[in-house]
Amino acid sequence: MDKRFSDIIQLIQQSRNNAIKAVNIELINLYWNIGAYVKQKLTVAEWGDKTVNELADFIQKNNPELKGFNRAGLYRMIQFYETYAGTKFVATARTQIQNIEKQEAKIVATVGRQLQPQPQDIRKTILAQLSWSHHRTIFSRCKTEEEREFYLRMSIKENYSVRELDRQINASLFERVMLGKVNIASLPKDFSQDIMNAFKDSYVFEFLNLPEPHSESDLQKGLIKQMKNFILELGRDFIFIDEEHKVQVGNSDFYIDLVFYHRGLQCLVAFELKTEKFKPDHLGQLNFYLEALDRNVKKPHENPSIGILLCKDKENEVVEFALSRSLSPAMVAEYKTQLPDKKLLQQKLHEIFENSNTEDI
């Protein structure tokens, strides 16, 4: 492409992207208001299921170019409204919702009176930042308000495609992150919240299709080959730098399995891969690599390097003891080569919350 005109092409593409975002915002706002309107009609028994069918048929007959307004589509809009009407995401619209609810008793008592809900504006909420396909995936698959909020914010932060979002739900990202936070006490106390938010307690590499058992070389080669999926699992702030990254100390050469750069933390991140259970002596090797990176590779404006030890398995108590005397910012995480049992993770999470509530009492 002629470099003289690249700025013009960039302006056109940016304008096109802005237009698509604007259309999506209006569409999400429209679906919200249709859901609110029909929900109120159904609530006061002014409309029934038959009326919703008639509305879908009416739209199809008179405006066949309008897609997504069949019976199933209208009920998804109702579900969308019902799911988030009571959440803080739509706090700006909540006052209007409450005013409508206060009128319900009067409306029910007034035979034949028409309910006319006032349009609500959710265009400045986080709901308007995602596509309808994202929303359908989240409110149809996520069971709790906390889980829905988690995937809403992660989709925006990591710019997930619908396919990537679906994969993260399958991989139980919410449950793994919540369970990982329970183990946060094992990290050094001087770790910042930003560092703790940037990494997970466990990673899922089901996309590698590795046999059991497998070698560290197989794991490394698989992650390099599937770098796009690996970055998706890590987070989009990670930038891959090198594999078998050589660091020279004295007259000896040493090789770090994988080296990344984290844009948000502005530091190098060294990954060491272990296809066995965590052992405390693994940390000695990782700390040595971090010292070499900081002395010979890190730039003056960058923060100290962080090490991640990816192990096949680990015991939290052993990790806590090993990290308590560690001088370098290092973390120990486990990896799985198969999708985790979502129900089992949910059960563990539920048990932790139950025990926490019992202790409070």
TrEMBL record:
Residue span, YhcG N-terminal domain: 7-176
Pfam family, one: YhcG_C
A GO molecular function held by the record: nucleic acid binding
Segments forming domain YhcG PDDEXK nuclease: 197-349
Alphabetical list of Gene3D superfamilies matching this protein: 3.40.1350.10
Stored InterPro entries: PD-DEXK-like_domain, tRNA_endonuc-like_dom_sf, YhcG_C, YhcG_N
Organism domain of life: Bacteria
Protein name: DUF1016 family protein
The species this protein was found in: Candidatus Sphingobacterium stercoripullorum
Lineage of source species: Bacteria, Pseudomonadati, Bacteroidota, Sphingobacteriia, Sphingobacteriales
